[in-house]
Structures are given as C-alpha cells and as structure tokens.
Amino acid sequence: MEKIGIFGGSFNPPHLGHVHAARYAALSLGLDRLMLIPSGKTPCKPVPELTASPEQRIKMLSIAFGSVPIAEVSSMELDRGGESYTWETVQQIREGNPEAELFLLLGTDMFLKFPQWVDADKLCGEVTLVSMNRGEKGERENLIRAAARIEGMGGKTVLLDNPVKSISSSQVRRLLAFEGADSFLPEGVLSYIRREKLYYVGADLKNLPMERLEQVVVSLLKANRVKHVLGCRDTAVELAKAWGADPVDAGRAGLLHDITKALDGELQLTLCGAYGKLLDDFSRKYPKTLHALTGSLVARRIFGENNAVVSAIEFHTTGKADMSLLEAIIYVADYMEPNRDFPGVERLRELAYTDIRGALKLGLEMTLEHLKEQGGEVSPASRQALDYLNR
Ligand code: FE
Ligand code: FE
Questions:
Q1: CA torsion 161→167→168→171, rounded to 10°?
Q2: Residues 2-54: pLDDT tens digits?
Q3: CB crowding 283-317: b at 16 or more within 10 Å, else e
Q4: 317 CA to centre of ligand 2 in angstroms
Q5: DSSP E strands: which ranges in 178-226?
Q6: How far away, in angstroms, is 329 Cα from ligand 1 center?
Q7: pTM over cut 0.85
Q8: How far does the centroid of ligand 1 lie from the alpha carbon of residue 331, in Å?
Q9: Residue whose C-alpha is closest to residue 193's, from 206, 207, 203
C-alpha cells in the first residue's frame, strides 16, 4: 500500500526545521510520497514585507525540498482559497488515492491541540496522526497523554523523536530582518529571499522616520510586548523633555530597546555568533539577559542609530557605572511606563520627575532585592552601577 505523508503549514518561510523533521518522518515511516501543502490564509501581519505571497511560498518550498525526491508541493489549499481546513484537504487527497495509507505530519504544538479540532473524529478515521518533535523540552508526558486521547477517539498515532532545530517561521522572519538567519535556512531559500527582498532582507532600515520606525518595530515584536514598548517610548520622551535630554533619541531608544526580546536564549546566542560578538561569563550563563546587548547591536547595524541611542539600549537591563542622562532615562522609563504594576512603582514614578538619578538608584535596588528573593545572580554591571551612585 502506498504511504503518503501530508505536511501542511504557512511555510512563511520554509526553514531547515521543516526540512529535517519531514525528512526524518519520511524515513521512519517509510513514506512513498511526501505532500507539502502551504495553507491558504496566513495570520495577518501589519506590514506586507513580512508575508511572502502564495507563489513565493510555493517557490521557496520547492527549493527547500529540492533534495528530497519523494517531496511534492501542492497548491490545493491555496487554490481552494479562504480559510484552510485540514479535513477538506484530507478528503481531497483521499478521493485521488482511495487505497493509500495517509499520515498527517504535525508539529508537537498542533499534535497536542488535535483532540480539540472540530474535525478530529472524522480525521481519526482517515489518517495516522504523527507528532514531529520540534525540540521543545518537557513535552513528552503531554504528547503521550494526547496520543492516548487520540487513540481513544479511534485514531492511530506515531510519536517521532527526531532531533531537530527548535525554530519557528516567525523567529526565522525576525532573524532575517536582523541578518542572523543563515544557519536556519537552506542556502537556496536564503538566496531566493535575498533576490525577492522578502522579510526586510535588503531593505534599508537605517534612520527611518519615526512613524515608519514604529511600524517596523511593532511588526517584529511579539504582540504582547507592543504595549510595553510604546509605553516605554512615550515615557522616555516625556522624561527627556523634563530633564533636557534629546526627545528624538529617547523616543528611538524607547522604541528599539526590546527589539530582540522575542528571541529565546539560544537565539540570542545565535545572533551574537552571527555578529561575531564575544561574550562574558555572565551573559553566557544567563543568555536571556542578552536582549539588551543584541538589541543595541541590531539598533546600530540594522537601524543605523547613533551611539547615544545604542548605548541606552545596551544598558537598559543592567545599568552600568557612570550612566549618561539618556541611559538613565531609558532604564527608568522601562521600569515605570504606564503598563508596569508592582509595589513601589508609584514611588518610582514620582522620583523620575524630581530626581532621575534617585529613580535610577531605586530601580537598581529593587532589581537587586528581587534577584535576591529569587535566588538569582546579580550582573556585575548592576553592582558597579549602584556602587557608582552610592560613592
Ligand atoms: Fe528589556
Ligand atoms: Fe522593556
């Protein structure tokens, strides 16, 4: 009996995580055909540069899977138009292949949610559900539980244990904009993206007018961080006006301060590697704190910001000895912008307009206190910042 693997997704863009996982699935399941099916609707993005057209996604898929002989790209979901429903896709494939054994390849996140799909019962009768491990930790138990539920619904399951790069298309899009995605994409796909100027690759993002900068920044943030960043920007501008710093620099630094925050620790390290940046021991041990450093690198290299802005971003989490007025303003604005809510924030807000250095000191002290409670390690830069203010 012919075995057909069905692998759907937005593939915006297809990356090495997709290729490795699908290849592993094809080998372990003994597939005869592997159908790659880009989905009709991709989540709306505010900026068109971040979404490749259907034709471009198809092209990138054929390039990415060019070395997999059993792979074929199908435009059936795009041709159907509108929202893509897996059940319709499976029915369509079934009609053309009444005898074949069908395998639906899913990332772990999709596999875990499968029992709640509207068409889960019907799908269980037609396909074997395959979970492709994308490398997330601590999910094994949940996968086994989901598999049991699916089998309870009469479905067949396979849990693959493939060692693959843990990366998503949205993270790849960010890394592309930051010029750090090379290790996650097949070479051919990367050159195609460069040629077609997709995902901000080849776009000149230096010295953008404020409004456009905001648009680009928002498109690269996670949705739940946008409010904080805009709040920080507004607060930084107000503080700059109050204290006689440059409000334009303050606004730009506020907008860009968390630009790389969506990248997890591992991707922070990847970006540092791509930029040829050597790290100190503290950063290597706590890569999550790296977003301040990588944010400053991106602010300079991609957005062409000046030294004052770059340095305010670099020290917005840890502080440092002898901070400039703008550095202090960004540190404090990040701490007390209107969306922040914690005991002591009102005191900080008052102090910010009467004694900015006092506010900076209070922020640093609160951070130290918090880290002490959590049993965390204080960065040497924060210690030096406080020592300097206490001298
Ligand atoms: Fe931050
Ligand atoms: Fe922040």
A1: 170
A2: 999 999 999 999 999 999 999 999 999 999 999 999 998 755 444 556 788 99
A3: beeebebbbbbbbbbbbbbbbebeebbbbbbbbbb
A4: 8
A5: none
A6: 14
A7: yes
A8: 9
A9: 203
Q: List domains and CATH numbers for the chain.
A: 3-166 (3.40.50.620), 205-389 (1.10.3210.10)
| Ligand closest to CA 293 | 1
Q: Which residues contact 123 (CB under 8 A, 6 or more apart)?
A: 86, 87, 90, 104, 117, 129, 155
Residue 334 CA, ligand 1 centroid: distance in Å: 7
Task: Report, in angstroms and rounded to the nearest whole number, the Rg of the chain calculated over CA atoms.
Answer: 24
* Rounded Cα–Cα distance for residues 351 and 229 (Å): 21
Give the distance (Å) from ligand 1 centre to CA of residue 327. 13
Give the closest ligand to the alpha carbon of residue 233. Answer: 2
Low-confidence residues in the chain, pLDDT < 50: 44-46
Q: Which two tokens stand for residue 345?
A: 């924030």
**176 C-alpha to ligand 2 centroid (Å):** 22
Question: Which ligand places an atom closest to the C-alpha of 268?
Answer: 1
Centre of ligand 2 to C-alpha 205, Å, is 21
| pLDDT value at residue 44 | 47
- For 343, counting Cβ atoms within 10 Å of its Cβ (0-12 exposed, 13-18 middle, 19+ buried), the class is exposed
From ligand 1's centre to the CA of 316, what distance in Å? 6
Each residue of 176-196: b (16+ CB within 10 Å) or e? bbbebbeebbbeebbebbeee
Ligand 2 midpoint to CA 259 (Å): 9
Spacing, Cα 182 to ligand 2 middle (Å)? 27
Ligand with smallest separation from the Cα of 232: 2
DSSP state of 379: P
User: How many angstroms is it from 363 CA to the middle of ligand 2?
Assistant: 13
Q: pLDDT (tens digit, 9 = 90+) per residue, 307-343?
A: 999 999 999 999 999 999 999 999 999 999 999 999 9
Greatest extent of the chain over all pairs of C-alpha atoms, in Å: 80
Q: How far is the CA of 312 from the centre of ligand 1 (A)?
A: 11
